[in-house]
Amino acid sequence: MSVNPILKDEEYWRSIREQFMLDPDEIYLNTGSFGSQPVPVFESMNRVLGHIEKNPTRHRGDGQALVTKSRATLARFLNAPSEDIAFASNVTMAINMVVLGMHWEPGDEILASDQEYGAIDNCLHLAETLHGVVIKRATIPIPPRDPQAILSAFEEGFTTKTKLVLCSHIATRTGLINPLEQLVELAHSHNALIAFDGAHSPGMIPLDLTSSGCDFYGGNCHKWLCAPKGTGFLFARADVQERLRHVVASWGYSQDGTTRGEQNQLQINNQPFMWGLENWGTRDQACFAAVGDAVEFQEGIGKDLILARGRLLADYLRQNMSQTGWANLLTPSFKEMSGSISAYELLGFNSTELYDPYRITVPFGKWGEDGSHWLRVSTHICNSFDQIDKLVAALTELRQKS
Question: What sign has the CA pseudo-torsion 243, 249, 255, 256?
Fold first, then answer.
């Protein structure tokens, strides 16, 4: 297979990196928490914001038209109808719209993995408390040897009461890419719906939500897509939207209920149902309008090239870390199960604080009861090989001081 020559063209990637707003005197390896906006995206957001503020009443219609256009651009990027996408502030809000928006009977079961994000665990606990839902967990090995290990873990958890499967598409702690389409097939074979927490997927890996067959998919735009903070989305397949209720009843709600359009699509207040579901009242239109600009910025580079570049940097990091003797890789080595996140258990460190002494931003914390540390490194299009070299050198020095 031929390799795109741009993949290793460091001048090209330097030109991409220079379009980001990151401090050139620092090393930012935490896109997995927050992406940095490219300059053209930031400028677009400010233009829209400035226009709206000139007359917040008269110009709201202009802002909403731009949000609708941006939604269509995002939908194309995800290969999903724009009518089936609701904008949300983040993936946590999106998953809450599913879990707390569905109708539950006491004893109904949600089957989730044991590696879900903490905020999503809180959402599941609230559903348990409010509705008597039973939360069951599939135990995923760290790292799993292959996709079948994940499928087998979920298979063991199904019962006749399983109504919803919930799983991170890419696990936030380890960077594991779960087998989306196989999990969809597994859930549907047990007559259960399935929802994915896609916090890390948009902008890291190509997505085709229509072909995936998933019922619900929540995603963030402010991480790997590098859109403004507080932008995300919820996709719901057309034939499951009627299973959802408003979590917040504002102007997107109708006391007269829902209707059907000419193509039998679910509507509320003469607009797509999902657009009503997202209406929680007044919100910032400029940040959502700029999501389309973030998509166009990445499309100018190419989805496949972005994934390949992130993996190339991740492979370089993993090769260097594997030679240290004190870093255990927590991310699967199976190619289809890993992308641009590399997570490690670090042995023999008193601390992994890297920002103050080295100006390197990377998340870390305690991992095991034996005092080991967890470190997660994001390698995106704004990063470089020399930044990885500096990270490994800094960790080596830190350990020597421990």
Answer: negative
